[in-house]
Design a protein that fits this description.
With 302 residues, the chain is mainly α. It is built from eleven helices and no strands. The two termini are 53 Å apart.
Amino acid sequence: MTTMGHSEASFAAGRPQRLVDFEQRFAEERRHKRLWTFVHLVLFAIALAGSVAVSDFNLVGLMNGLPKAWNYIVGTLPKLSLETLGADLSDWYWGLRFWLRLLVETILMGFVGTVLGGLIALLLCFPASRNLVENTGIYFLARRSLEFLRTVPELVFALIFVFAFGLGPFAGVLAIAVHTAGSLGKLFAEVNENVDPRPIEGVRAAGGNWPMLMRLGVVPQALPNYASYLLLRFEINVRGASALGIVGAGGIGQELYVAIRQFEYTDISAIMLLLIATTSIIDITCETIRHRLIGQDMQAGH
């Protein structure tokens, strides 16, 4: 009874001071967060104002230009009539067979470029992961290499490869592969840095060397995310491949560029609709595969 009374007295005497200390720390932490929030908002406002000034962004010009853009889009559409719908569509898609062949070529460019880039990214992602390499020089070199590959735009790579290998889809495939390697390598490395370290320690304790650690400790955990990013990149690359034709790197983009330069407005809308439909189909297909992979992974308890 005496002990309980002493404890209650100590608790009653100490609690207000602890509360005061807690409230002081809480108030100080809140002031600190508010100060940094204010600093970040000021920096954001400065960056936004600088960007608007440098880019000549003009809200009035935007409002005036939007109707013109809409008129251009509407001007590319043909006049269709219910009475002559079949003939109108046939006239609109007069080059369907040729465009489909170029579209398949574009999809294959995106596919091959994604596979090649994904393989390079897979090789570079392990030395680019901070938790998987002890040598700072190797980590630095791998990271900077990935930065270089993804920083240079695909169009610039395509121009270089067109100059080196000539016109055609081969230059486009190489441009897509190089840029994909840099982008996917960074994403793969970030996935590696978030894996559970316990399987890695288990393989190391069993005497596994570095390749075994990657193969048995890292890849099984990261594989669903690898596949998800690879499929997402494939969607992006098909869209990107259609733009590489502008510099002569093959695909349907080359025909689209010709139609734009020759003011063949109905051809522009026909090719664009084919591209949109193809991209939507690829998007739905890849989304289904990604959900299946992620769903199986969740059911497996990973």
